[in-house]
Amino acid sequence: MAYETLLTETHDGVRLIRLNRPEALNAFNNQLMNDLTAALDEAEADDAIGCMVITGSEKAFAAGADIKEMASKSYAEVYGEDFITRNWERVTRCRKPVIAAVAGFALGGGCEMAMMCDFIIAADNAKFGQPEINLGVSPGAGGTQRLTRFIGKSKAMDMILTARFMDAAEAERCGLVSRVVPVAELIDTAMAAAKKIASLSPNAVKLTKEMVNAAYETPLSQGVMLERRLFHSLFAFEDQKEGMAAFVEKRKPAFKGR
Ligand code: CO8
Asked: Which listed residue (104, 109, 110, 129) is catalytic?
């Protein structure tokens, strides 16, 4: 399907979704959020897709919510239309993994969107920030919560209250991103990680993602119990037999998603 504000491609079970509003540094307007929601719905529904990658341009992953679209909204409008949550959190409901490949600016809602993905691979020119305070508002799509969990209170307060940007090296040091690569290698690196994921047992991948996400929502003892039960449940799939047989027989597994 073609989208007004996105470019999509598929390679080896991976759907690459490129945010494409260069005139506004990929700021999220209503059209882009509707397109992104539809693109994620489409990828989730397609059994041939095992992983998604969301990226922007070399200059900007996304410079946040569209300030020009948002500026004149009233309280009655933002509350009435449930501004933000209506479709902003679609990425957090994906059962398949979603990787954010971030080059350039990831600011405000752009940083929040990257943090909603399962992990972030950054280019060496990436700049993360929550500068909403400069506009007289606060983060509104999870920034105060997710950034604090990622990098701790002191750094999160510093970034959110002073609006300073964090470069890729600092983002890697404090655990916001999983790795940093030269900007020219960003897409290949993210696609290689995504292709590896897409080649695995899809049920094992989805259940493992659920387990890691549970670490944010449950006490340790319950999280460990959930992990054990879901681990046991993986023995119900043919892919477990295939994966272990392939190891013993020294061959590549052929996972079938059953
Ligand atoms: N919204 C709308 N347009 C934008 C945005 C944006 N967030 N960011 C950049 N643009 C536009 C600029 O207006 C400019 O357009 P034009 O050429 O027509 O004037 C074009 O993109 C290029 O931008 P600049 O000329 O400013 O480029 P620079 O390289 O000089 O600067 C910056 C790049 C530093 C990224 C600068 O553009 C900037 O500071 N942008 C705003 C960043 C920001 O404040 N982001 C937070 C937005 S608020 C938010 O995200 C709240 C999230 C809560 C959820 C919202 C749910 C909807």
From this structure: 109
Is the pTM for the entire model greater than 0.90?
yes
Could you report the per-residue pLDDT of 44-54, keeping only the tens digit for each?
999 999 999 99
Write the pLDDT tens digit of every residue in 175-229.
999 999 999 999 999 999 999 999 999 999 999 999 999 999 999 999 999 999 9
Q: What's the CA angle centered on 148, arms 224 and 122, to 5 degrees?
A: 90
Q: Which residues line ligand 1 (CB under 6 A)?
A: 24-25, 27-28, 63-68, 83-84, 88, 105, 107-109, 131-132, 135, 139-141
If you take atom 47 of ligand 1, which residue's CA is the nearest one? 64
157-168 pLDDT, tens per residue? 999 999 999 999
Q: Is 112 a catalytic residue?
A: yes
Rounded (5°) CA angle 169-171-175 = 120
Say which residues have a Cβ less than 8 Å from residue 169's Cβ, sequence separation at least 6.
124, 180
Q: Which of 112, 142, 168, 204 is catalytic?
A: 112
Task: Give residue-wise pLDDT tens across range 132-162.
Answer: 999 999 999 999 999 999 999 999 999 999 9
Let me know if 65 is a catalytic residue: yes
Verify whether residue 76 is a known catalytic residue.
no
Is 170 catalytic? The answer is: no
